[in-house]
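Q: What structure does this chain adopt?
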Amino acid sequence: MKGDVSIFGKSIWDYNFMELSRIVGLVKQNPLDQLVTFRVRDEIAFGLENLKIQEDVIRKRIEEIAKFMGISHLLDREIDQLSGGQKQLTILCSFLVMDPKILILDEPIAFLDQHSESLLLNRLERLIKSPEYNLSLVIIEHRLSRVINIANKILVLDDNGTIKLKGPISEILKDKFEILKSCNVRVPWITDVYNNFKKQNLEAAGNFKIPTNFKHLLEIPNNLNREELKKLSQVLIDTEIKPKNIEKFESYDQKISFNDVYIESLQKMEISKNIVKSNEADFTKENDIILETKNLNFEYPNSGIKAINNLSIEINQGDFIGLVGPNGSGKTTLLYLLANLYEPTSGNIFYKNQNLKSINQHKYARKVGFIFQNPENMIFKPTIRDEILYGPVNFGILNDIKHDYLSKLIELIGNEDEDKNPYNLSWGQKRRLNLSSIFVYNPDIILLDEPFIGQDQKTIDSLVETLYLENKRGKTIIISSHDYHLLLKYTRKIIELNKDGSLNDYALNGNYFLRHKNLGPIVLLNLIKEKLKGV
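A:
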């Protein structure tokens, strides 16, 4: 609108587009926005081909960058056979192969599993430190902990797009942590735990530098006495392992009071009576097991790729489940199968003891709410209001939706006009619109594929609290996510898939994270327990 942007001392308006594209690369938040070919190798070659680079040079560069980024095995794979994380790595390679001077990454690790995330961050660190590449990196990221060891500076914008904080990361964490946290940035849990401990034990915490990585945090218990260790343990539990902020929902009969009036309004409503008048068939009778898979297999047509492998699991009504596994392990595919959007290659899926094959698809669709990984995949109408009412219109229950309830669902999205085009919303707002369009018809089962991507801390808190309350009312919720940290805090059971789509672990008694002792909060908790034995 006004002002200017200079790159290497030259206004962007004085560059021609081809010249600028050689200097600056932009990897968008949603990889589907940038994929233009059908094969991984062709996708990486696309930019170089447009620059008319010789074929043998292109081939060599592709092999080098694919090896550097750890995706050589994907080069001949079809794009539509890739997981979300694999697509993200492919797009990143398509820019790195062009040797840009500035690389801008918008939520680059949002779709990645822990291995791929570590690989990518390691490669990015090597890139910016390598004199070969001479690369400046700008990362847009809500989760500060993921980039804290790479970035040397931080820039925080407030809701109005004004610079709220700016400076070296170490200084911001040390001197302005509370301001940083108030900006809805997802602060590193190690720093958050330390600061909460410091508030209660100023004298003990004052002897340490603020921890900026996990190694620094692990050093703190070595210098604490017995009482201080107990306090640190309790802070860790209250902050990360069994969060205090959801204790108020343990009994949903009590009045729930916090900023999100949408949830407070839900607490007052008997949804099953006032919103939906159901005339469903007998298959909706109560049953402890709401979903079950038996020897489930799914293979993508003409690919030879088995996404789900002999999977047999039982899911009880009212379960709150985290679905985890590496990229390509079939998490999204499993959700599609449970939603009856894919048909199994072999094996069966049962809803309340009835095979999905024998249930009317329209009736089953009323029972399942699906939040896709890409929020735009489930936006169909030109206004926010029409989008929320799209399900009720299709299910023939439009007259049962109360105006006040609709207003609250619109409020959940943000301070937006109900006639606004959904495509003009932010990624996070589109995700909240997806939720509103699901909640409005009151399904029994809610399936969410990476719902935390692109969300700030306030929105995550609101989403989790909303889902937690819906679960307390009996809804079965399954969240597929690479964000182990959030699943550790909020879900009660974990389904973990192997790389080949088979079942690795299904923790039915809520102790998944205690068995997987390599997760940060559990490592620290166990260290404190060991110290207490010796003190």
